[in-house]
Amino acid sequence: MKNKIHFFESQMEQKLTIAYEYFTTWKELSEIDQSLIVKAFEACETAYAPYSNFRVGASIQLSDGTILKGSNQENVAYPSGLCAERVALFYAGANFPNEKVDTLCIVAKGDLLPMDKILSPCGGCRQVMLETENRQKRSYRILLVNQDDTVTVFQSAHDLLPLAFGV
Ligand code: THU
User: Fold this and answer.
1) Distance between Cα 163 and ligand 1 center (Å)
2) For residue 166, with 0-12 CB atoms within 10 Å meaning exposed, 13-18 middle and 19 or more buried, which class applies?
3) Which of 10, 36, 163, 165 is the most buried (most CB within 10 A)?
4) Model pTM?
5) Is residue 150 domain-resident?
6) pLDDT-based confidence at 14, cuts 50/70/90?
7) Residue 85 bears catalytic tag
8) What SS3 class is residue 95?
């Protein structure tokens, strides 16, 4: 049967819920969040995306107030490229190993996704986002700004990757 998980009789079906907030426009967010979003849009302009034409920008607010930016960087050998949020998170890990990530913001421009679709990070990025959280022993907020200006806000990377691999 399609899309049906089979459970043995002795097993109980389990359900998971994830929490997130939804805003009809990112202008409803706090001034601090809005300025972080503006930084992510700035980062979007530095995307190198000649193959997908999908430009992604990420910004990070660290616990000391530092703001970092990253964008997707593609390569003719496709798997060698890297997503915007991973560029930003790895930059944070490499250059600010003692600061914690407070907020990660992701924006995008391009027709790869319909305008009203949630800008949902890829699986590999979710795993990296979770590693950052585990490494700093503190969850952080994730702002996903969709192309229609709506926003989904998560309080933890765990909510984006239930049943994640790892400790
Ligand atoms: N991309 C990101 O930068 N972040 C994501 O979470 C998903 C996808 C990039 C990778 C590639 O350069 C382009 O978007 C199209 O997949």
Assistant:
1) 23
2) exposed
3) 36
4) 0.92
5) yes
6) confident
7) yes
8) helix
